[in-house]
Each structure stands twice: as C-alpha cells, then as structure tokens.
Design a protein that fits this description.
heterodimer, A: 10-stranded mixed β-sheet, two-stranded antiparallel ribbon, 17 helices, 38% helix, B: alpha/beta, 8-stranded mixed β-sheet, 54% helix
Chain lengths: 484, 717
C-alpha cells in the first residue's frame, strides 16, 4: 500500500480518479488500478515526461509479474562446476530463489525449467531439482526445450498458466551444464547391447557377441550442428556476418564492449541476480568467471574458429560454452500483492518467430522485435532497456544491419520500412551472453532479470528482451517495470 | 559407356570460353598503368559480361573451314593462357557457377583458385563429349595439377566435379560457402564476398604470406612418386588405353587422342605437348563424330526450351495414376523439383512398391552425397501415396501410367474427369496407344495430351510429348513446362500410332527378330549392335523393354502399318510370352537374369523356339556389316518418314528423340545427322539392296529418295 499511496499524498490537487482509486480494494481490475498509478505518477513528476506512456495491461487478462529472479554465477564450462550434474546447478538456483524471495514452498503451483542438452538420467530436470531443493513433492514440474530460448519458453509457459487462471505462482528457470554432456555408444553398439539383453540362451548371446566389431566402439557426440542443415552455429554465424558485410574489426569491437560493460556492472555490483553457490568440495562461487576484457590488438591475433582460414568469427567474439542455472518467481499480480510482495516487473506481450534455419538461423531478434512491438502498440522509442541475447558479435551486428535495412525489410520481412536500430546506449548495458556467458537453457531468465533490474536502476518503463535460437527460431518479450 | 555418360552431361556443357576471351585478357594484361584486377570471376553470366563475348562457338568453329584454322585457333588460345600463367602479378580465379571447358583452362592457368561451395559450381573438361579435347593447354596443365590418373579421368569422361570434390583433388585451393540474404540478394552478395576473399588471397600471394603450393596427402604423394617411374607410366597409359578401347569400341576418336596428347606432354616436354594438343584439337574438330556430337548438343539446347511459351497456370499439384515402374519414376523426378505429387494405385502392395522406389531413388542420392538425409525427407514429404481420389480436386495435372490397355485407360479417364477441376490437364504416359483414341471418351479433349516417359524415368532424359488435333496450345505449354521442370529434354510430336520413338523402334525390332530367326546368336547380335554404337545390344534391349510390351507394340503397329513393319515373325514373341520369358522382369528372356549375378548367360530354352521358327539366311545380305545396316537403315527410313508425314516438326527433334530415348548411336548424331554425314545416296543404295532381298520393308521413303537425288539437300543446312 505504501507505494500506491505515496504519490497520492504528494498530489497538489487531488484528482477525482486518484480519490476513487485510493478507496478501491486491491482486488480490483488491474487495468483500472494500473492506469491511475501512471497518471498519478506523472502528475507527481510535474510533467517531466511530455509523452504519455500507457501501460500494457489488457482487459480481462490477469497481469503477470516477476517477483524476483536469481541465477548461479555463470562459469566457463570445465571450471568449478565440472563435477556437478545439471540438477545440482538447477537446485542451486532454486534454493537461491527460495532464499531471496522467502516464498513459502507450498504456494508454488508449478515449476518449469528449460534445458537443451539433456542428461539422460534426469530428463525431467525440473522435477529432480525441485525435489532436491525441498519444494513440496505435491508441486508438479516439467522441463521444456527450445534451444537457446528454452528458459524463455519456461517463462512464457508460466505466463500462459497464470493468465489463463490455471495457476497463481510459478517458478520458471533454466539450466545447462556443458562440462558434461551425454556421449552415446554408436547405434550399432546400442543395438547389440539391447539385443543381448533380450537374448535367452548362451548360444544366442555368443552369436550376438560374434557380431561385435571394433568400430562399434566409436562414440556418438551430441550434435553440435543444426540437424536440418548439418551446419554448426558458428559456421552459420560467420556466413551471416559475411552476408551482412560485418567486418572482423566491428565484431571484435562489439565483443570488447560487451566484456567492458559486464566488467563495469560486475564491479559496481549491478549484477544483483547472481546468488553465491557453495560447490560441494570446492569454494563458494560468487561471480561470473567469463568476463575478460582484452584489447583489440590481442583479439585481432586470434585465428578464425569456424571458417578457416579467412572467416571472421573467433573465440573472442563468440559466446563461450557455459555452465549455469537461473530461476525466477512469477505470480499473478493480485497474488503477489496479497502476499505482500513488491514485484519487479510485469511480463507483457511476447512473440515466437521462426525462419530459414540455413541462411537466417540467427536472425530471430530482427523478426521478433517489430512483431512484439506492434502487438504491444509500442515503438522502438518507447523502449528504455534492450536486452538481446549475444550468441556471436557477428550475429548481433548482422541483426542490427538487418533491422537497419529497408531492402531486407521489404524483401524478407514483408514490411514497407526497416525495423530501425535499437540505440546502443540502451543496449545490453550490463554486458551480455558474450561476456557473462550463455548456458543455453538458462539465458532467457537472465535476460528478463537484467531488463527488470536495469529498468529499476536506470529508470524507464519498458524493456525489450530478444533472442535467437537453433532451428532458426527467435523470441521477443516486453518487460514493463513495476511502478515503484 | 563414354557415349552414354556423354549424353548425360552434355546439357551442362559450355566450352571454348577461352577462345572468346582474348580481347579482355590481352587488353588488360599488357596495360600496365592500372593495376590489373587480380580476379577473374567465372560465372555463367558474369563471364559473358566480363569478357564481352560476341561470337557463339558454332559460328566461331564454323568460320574455321580447315584443319589449319582450327589448329591456329587452339594455338592462339594456348598463347593467351600462357600469358596468364606467366604473370608476375598473382592471379586468383574466383569461380562461381559452372567452370567448364575453356573456363577451367583459364582457371588452372591462374596461380590460385577459389570456388563457391555451391551445387551450381562444377568444374570439368567436357570437350570429350563433343568429340574434341581441351585445346587451350588443359591437357598439359591438368595432369601437373591433379596427377595423371585423375586428369585422364576428368578429360576422358568429361564428368563435372563438384566444388568440395575439386578441393580434395587439388583442383581448387579454397572454398567459399554461399551466403544467405543480407543487404543484397544472396547471389549478388555471394559473388561480392567471393571476390573479397579472392582479393585477400591475391594480396597474401603477392606478399608471399600464402603459398600457392598445397599439402598433398600420403596417397597423392605416393601416386605422384610412382608416376615418376617410366615403367609405371607406361603401364598406366596402357591400362587406360585398353579401357577406352573397350568402352568406345573404336567409335570415338577423341579419348585416344587425349591420352596421346597427355603422353606426349609428359614424355617429350611441354612444347611438344602444346604443339600436339593444338594439332589433335584441329583434327578432332574436323571429324564426323565431333560434328555429330556438337549437333546433338545444339539440338539438346533447343529441346530445353518451351516453344509454346509460358502456360496460363503453373502446375503445382500433380497426380499420378499407377505406382508401377513408370508412375513411381515420374513421381520421383517431380517431388524433388518441389511439385506436390499424389501417387495413386489400386492396391496397397503396388502403392508400397512405388513409394519405396521413390524413396530408394532419393536415398541413393543421399549415399552419393548429392542430398542430405534431411533434404531427402523433406522432398519425400511432397509425395502422398493413396488408393482413392482424395485431393484430386486440387490437381493441376494428372498423368496416368496404368497398364497399356485402351479400355482401362478409358475407364480411368472417366473416373478422373469426374473429380478433377476444369483447368486440370490429363496426360497419358503411353508408349503406343494413339492419344486421340484415349481422348475419344473425354469431355474436354483439348485438355488431353500424351507424355511418353522412358524407363528408368530418373535416368532417361527424354520426354516425348504427343499433341492431338484437339489439344490446346496452353495444354501443350503446361506439359512442356512440367517436363522441363522435371529436367527432361523434350520433343513434341503429332499423334499417330507409335508416335515417333516407338514407331522408329518397331521396324528395327522386327528386323531383330528376323535376324535371330536367320540363326544369328543373340550374343553375336548384341555385339554387332554395340559395336555400331548402340549403348545396349538389340537382343538385350528386347529383354529390358519386356517381351510382352514388345509383342503388344508389334501387334498394334503391325495392324496399322501392315507389311512395312513385317519381317520377323511375331510368333517368336508370342511363344516367348507364353513360356513366361518376359525379359529381365521375369528373370528370363533371351538371357537369364539372376539377382546379384553380373554375367549374362543365354537362355538355352530359347533354342527350341528359335529352331521352330528358323528362316534360311540370305547370304548376299548377311555379312556383319549388312546385318548392322539392315537394322539401322530401317530405323532411319522410318524416322525420315515421320518427318515426311509431319509427325516430327524438325529433324533436330528427331535426332534428340532417337539418341536420348532409344539409344541411337550418339557418334552418328541421330538418324537425320547420320543421313547428312553418311550421305543419303549411300543409305538409299543400301536400302535398295535389301529391298531386292526382302521386299517392301526396305523401300526408301520419298523424302529420303529426294535427298539422295539432290546431294545439296541436307536436313541440317
């Protein structure tokens, strides 16, 4: 109640709306409630902002809020987390969330986690992690997968469950452990072993064993390439950068920016979503370890990682293999307020897109951004904080060039004019996946929390989150700051 | 086999670009003020612009009347390319699209080659397919670049090599992946990017940061070492020559000369090699074989155009009735071009077999790495197999490939017309039933047309389209458009019994039976026909086509054409059918066919049938050569008659149809080219000689007689 009445108290002339509002119970329709808040707030600021900013609440649809979100420190794979299993990391994020929000375990209706490379022992990693973290065994959990936007899918699944009235309290998150991936026996070996299981007599077994050949032992690694095109993502990113004529220098410069900004944010303590994690048998990990601002000269020395010897994508301007997990608490607004929470942000319109997985693999943000803005009735200018997933410098810059191109908009997006560039001063100001790291399944929640935290810290009403994913898919979502 | 392969690849041929490029290279090469742009972009279209080409090859070579002139042309080209090679500034060839023939010769004279890793990008020396050899130094440079065995393989088969394979062979030094859409159309940006990369490498070469030398693998090093030993070299030449002799049967002079030229270059040095190359080039271009092959090439280009213009409505949904060998084959060449195709049959077993055939065809491409398994699956999803007429209301064209039985075709036509939309075309894939008879029961005969495919559909390039009096122009345009989409070479003929192809083949087959009846062993007959240049022996051909089909056709056409199609006794075929000797499909015909056994044995059960129908041979017309000519002259005579009667519109279509559909010897260039090159008079003389022995079947037709009477008359002016 305090934040809501605060502007009222300072109001020079009491507006009729505000009066009406102040006596309304909290359970009133969110639209009615939210609109006067903005109105009142604006009067309080004495028209500092001339432009009217509306809220994105929709009639007859429940508002969904992010109470808070946390993540484990994101680490280069093969470092401190290397002996863990994915559900260990996910558990750490969940306990961190419990600690941060003090949410009573029994009110959580449902838990959803995103992950990409599944540990076969814990294929529903959400459930294993929730049980281990001490959530009620009566709380169901499921795992979703949608490549690099798996956590986004976990969040929006939660949004759907709340908006449709099925649930009030959801925990959504994501996890990825690239230090250990399932490596399988070859198909022939698997077949032999399965047949051996079924063999009844010694004779059958021996005849099966006699079929064994040494080449059966060749292992099968999890696919790093796109199934439909057999092209690795780095290779595709390099081609994308070339298609948009993004130079090596531009890419290195952008990567350097990401690392520098991340370093600054880390030093200034802005990355408040990070929770310390005591790794069993190791020291407590408190911060991300992939942030390494270098110099352009150093970066220029690296050889191309994918298209050799003349490509432009290098280890320095790509995101690295990362271990990490994230989790956030999302609720129906009235539930959060009833429980006395002060939410951080609303989760508003979102949009999934998909396009050609060969030549436009990583252009998801370009396609999703204008669509979600149109859906929400906003323009680029309304956005105060952009949080885009940085898979590769080349990918971000190619998306910029695509968004800035009338030709591309006309010929590939069916638009009359270009999407327009996000202003760089509002873009990934606290670093991005290039520097903070990119645990595939967990990045989505990090993006949303970064947007929400930035809006609180830097001011502004709307944040835009966007990401690309394998399979030529993409996601964008509007995050609206919760009024202070 | 060289010939067979030759035909397959002819379509992609584009040779002698170098000859037309001299203006550009000379001008820029000697101009010193501006730094020579160290890139030559060789792309089908780009090159035309870049090199400001004006003279098409035909007129270029036609202008050279004598051997000396052609030789000079080659020498001039050699000199130009040599200048490129000796350039002190590094020259990088940037290759996108087909780099064949002269294009490749320019490319291999550069210091470095970069190619786009695109399906469109192919490299090769297809000159042999035109009966010539690489005449601008290619025979000398290629062996040095990729080794003698690989170079000979390229030059003797004329095969096109994809970019990734070329990189492995050392034919190109770097690959560039084609780009997707960016700020410009993908193709445009890809070429720009290719040039950017090429310039980086050119600078690197100039600064000596990049070495043009390539690391060779162990096998390659060993081969290269082995080739330094004279004895090994001799053995290689000998082996290759033997193989070529066996395959060409001495009918194609080009391959042996290529080996000769390569040998001269290696054993006697480059100067002798270049001289030999230009001389042999001149000699080869002057040969009849080369003229025949070039004629086929031009004919093929002609038959890749739609002379009816664009159809009003593009065919997007295709339905095929009958999932047999033909139906499934047609489906296979349609789905991989993106046509939504329904394959309908009456029984599930037949449908299963057909769908499996399509899948296998695609899967074989995966094994050859021409497709990825993912592409295969997405192509295969264009195919719907079904037993009913669901979805036919959306079909733009229905092709029926049901059994060759008029009443069945009538029934099917009526059933289909009840469900298809008004604009839908009904095409019949029949090899002998006249289309107008099929169309007789149609409500809209203007939409009925014949599309005669050849088996196996995915391998045979020819499509014979048959129009009736009533077929509308738009229907024809649609049928040709679909055929072209399926990658076919198309001849359009008028309706009539047997159309063109079947009609030409029938008298020859009749003669085959007579020759067998006269006691010639099927094996002997096969070797006589193959040594004349037919890719498949005559007896084997009957087995492949199917004895029952041959019988059907012989009876049908025999009824219509009467005595002229007589000769052999059709009773032979009837008896074979009654004994179940249907050819390859039943395992027995003239030969015995067994799964997995390559060797063909004669079917000894045939002896009694042949003995019962034995005819006394006529010794005056039974020499080996006479037997060959009895077969060929009957074929040629009937072909000319088709032109005379207006079944055929042009001799070029007649030649293409005969070579691509029936395996008429490519080295002869088709029946009409053969008459031109061999001489109409000589053919008529032959015919008259056989007429004296056998009668009317050999009477030369009027048009042929006219050509014989006035030696200036030619089918090709």
């Amino acid at each position: 109640m305090t934040i809501l009445t605060y502007p009222f108290k300072n109001l020079p002339t009491a507006s009729k709306w505000a009066l009406r509002f102040s006596i309304r119970p909290l359970s009133c329709s969110s639209q009615l409630r939210a609109a006067p808040v903005v109105f009142v707030f604006k009067l309080y600021l004495k028209a500092v902002q001339t432009k009217t900013k509306k809220t994105l609440a929709k009639p007859n649809i429940r508002n969904v809020v992010v109470v808070d979100g946390v993540r484990t420190p994101f680490l280069l794979s093969g470092t401190s987390y290397k002996d863990l299993m994915p559900h260990d990391l996910a558990r750490a994020a969940l306990t961190g969330l419990l600690h941060r929000t003090s949410v009573p375990k029994e009110v959580v209706d449902y838990i959803i986690f995103g992950t990409v490379i599944q540990e076969v022992k814990t294929s529903n990693v959400a459930r294993e992690a929730a049980l281990g973290a001490g959530f009620s065994d009566k709380t169901p959990a499921h795992t979703v997968t949608m490549a690099c936007i798996s956590a986004n899918q976990a969040m929006t699944t939660g949004v759907g469950l709340i908006a449709s009235g099925q649930c009030d309290v959801i925990v959504a998150g994501g996890v990825e452990l690239m230090s250990d991936v399932p490596i399988r026996h070859s198909r022939k070996m698997r077949k032999l072993m399965l047949d051996l299981n079924k063999a009844k007599s010694m004779g059958q077994r021996l005849s099966l064993i006699s079929k064994f050949r040494f080449n059966f032992l060749a292992p099968e690694l999890p696919a790093v390439s796109e199934f439909s095109t057999s092209e690795t993502m780095g290779h595709s990113a390099d081609r994308l950068a070339a298609a948009f004529a993004v130079s090596r220098l531009e890419q290195d410069e952008y990567a350097l920016r990401s690392h520098s900004l991340a370093k600054k944010a880390q030093d200034e303590g802005l990355l408040s979503d990070v929770v310390p994690f005591k790794v069993p048998g190791k020291d407590t990990v408190t911060k991300d370890n992939g942030i390494r601002p270098s110099s352009l000269e150093q970066m220029a020395k690296l050889k191309p990682a994918f298209i050799k010897p003349y490509g432009t994508v290098t280890a320095a301007n790509s995101s690295f293999l990362t271990d990490g997990a994230s989790a956030m608490l999302i609720m129906a607004e009235e539930k959060a307020l009833a429980m006395g929470y002060k939410p951080k942000a609303y989760l508003r319109d979102f949009m999934y897109v998909s396009q050609d997985p060969k030549d436009q693999l990583l252009l998801g943000p370009t396609y999703a951004t204008p669509k979600v803005l149109e859906k929400a009735g906003l323009t680029m200018n309304d956005i105060d904080a952009f949080e885009f997933h940085e898979a590769f410098s080349g990918q971000i810059l190619a998306n910029f060039k695509a968004m800035d191109s009338d030709w591309f908009a006309e010929n590939y997006m069916g638009r009359k004019t270009k999407v327009g560039l996000p202003p760089l001063e509002k873009f990934n100001n606290w670093g991005g996946s290039l520097s903070l790291g990119h645990p595939f399944g967990a990045t989505g929640c990090r993006l949303v929390m970064a947007a929400a935290n930035r809006l609180r810290k830097e001011g502004g009403q709307y944040g835009l989150v966007a990401a690309c994913a394998a399979g030529g898919q993409g996601h964008a979502m509007i995050v609206e700051a919760y009024p202070k | 086999m060289v010939a067979c392969r030759a035909i397959g690849i002819l379509s992609r041929f584009s040779a002698f670009r170098i000859l037309r490029s001299r203006g550009y290279i000379c001008r820029n090469f000697t101009g010193s003020s501006a730094l020579l742009k160290p890139i030559l972009t060789m792309e089908s279209k780009g090159m035309w612009q870049l090199f400001e080409l004006t003279l098409p090859i035909q007129s270029m070579l036609a202008a050279c009347k004598t051997l000396q002139e052609v030789t000079q042309l080659s020498q001039e080209a050699q000199r130009i390319v040599e200048k490129l090679e000796k350039s002190t500034k590094p020259i990088v060839a940037a290759i996108n699209g087909s780099c064949l023939g002269g294009g490749l010769e320019v490319a291999i004279s550069c210091q470095y080659r970069i190619a786009t890793k695109d399906r469109k990008t192919v490299l090769g020396t297809p000159e042999v397919l035109l009966g010539a050899l690489p005449g601008a130094g290619g025979t000398q440079r290629l062996p040095k670049m990729v080794g003698v065995p690989a170079a000979l393989d390229m030059m003797l088969t004329g095969r096109s090599i994809r970019a990734d394979r070329a990189k492995k062979m050392g034919l190109v030094d770097q690959l560039v992946e084609p780009l997707g859409p960016g700020l410009k159309p993908p193709e445009e940006r890809t070429i720009e990017y290719l040039e950017e990369v090429a310039i980086t490498f050119a600078k690197g070469l100039a600064d000596k940061k990049i070495s043009p030398k390539r690391d060779k693998g162990l096998v390659e090093k060993l081969t290269a070492y082995a080739m330094t030993i004279p004895f090994v070299r001799q053995q290689v030449y000998k082996k290759v020559e033997e193989k070529v002799r066996k395959q060409t049967k001495g009918l194609y002079p080009a391959p042996l000369k290529i080996i000769d030229v390569v040998k001269t270059g290696i054993e006697q040095g480059s100067d002798a090699g270049y001289l030999c190359e230009s001389q042999k080039f001149g000699e080869l271009v002057m040969t009849k074989e080369s003229k025949a092959l070039m004629g086929l090439y031009h004919g093929q280009v002609l038959c890749k155009k739609n002379k009816f213009g664009a159809p009003q409505k593009d065919v997007k949904h295709l339905a095929i009735l009958g999932a047999g060998l033909m139906g499934a084959g047609i489906a296979q060449v349609s789905v991989d071009k993106g046509l939504k195709t329904i394959l309908k049959d009456a029984t599930l077993t037949a449908l299963d077999r057909g769908q499996q055939q399509v899948f296998k065809g695609l899967n074989d491409k995966v094994k050859k790495k021409a497709l990825t398994s993912f592409e295969r699956d997405s192509i295969f999803s264009n195919l719907t197999g079904q037993l009913d007429y669901q979805g036919f209301e959306k079909a733009d064209m229905v092709i029926e490939a049901v059994f060759e039985d008029l009443s069945l075709k009538h029934r099917v036509l009526k059933e289909v017309e009840a469900v298809i939309p008004d604009h839908c075309i009904f095409a019949s894939n029949t090899s002998a039933l006249p289309i107008s008879e099929i169309a007789a029961v149609s409500k809209r005969p203007e939409k009925v047309i014949g599309m005669h495919y050849f088996s196996p559909v995915d391998k045979m390039q020819l499509l014979e389209i048959i129009t009736t009096e009533k077929t509308s122009k738009d229907t024809s345009a649609s049928a040709v458009a679909v055929g072209l989409k399926q990658g076919k070479v198309i001849i359009v003929v008028k309706d009539g019994p047997g159309f063109y192809t079947t009609r030409c083949l029938a008298p020859m087959m009749s003669e085959v039976i007579r020759i067998l009846q006269e006691g010639v062993d099927p094996k002997k007959l096969d070797s006589l026909t193959t040594s004349f240049g037919f890719p498949v022996g005559a007896a084997t051909l009957v087995d492949e086509v199917g004895v029952d089909v041959a019988k059907h056709v012989a009876e049908d056409l025999g009824k219509v054409f009467g005595e002229r199609f007589g000769g052999g006794n059709p009773e032979l075929l009837t008896q074979m059918v009654s004994k179940g000797f249907l050819g390859r499909k039943s395992g027995k015909g003239f030969y015995i066919y067994q799964e997995g056994v390559k060797r063909k044995d004669l079917n000894s059960d045939m002896d009694s049938i042949l003995a019962s129908l034995k005819l006394p041979p006529k010794s005056e017309v039974s020499s080996d050569e006479d037997i060959q000519f009895r077969l060929v002259t009957r074929f040629v005579n009937e072909a000319v008659m088709c032109l005379q009667e207006g079944i055929l519109a042009t001799p070029a279509e007649g030649d293409i149809g005969a070579v691509f559909g029936l395996g008429f010897p490519p080295c002869l260039g088709g029946p009409f080219r053969f008459v031109d090159l061999y001489g109409a008079q000589k053919i008529v003389d032959r015919l008259k000689k056989y007429e004296a022995a056998y009668g009317k079947q050999f009477t030369p037709c009027q048009l042929l007689a006219d050509h014989a009477n006035s030696p200036n008359k030619k089918f090709y002016q």
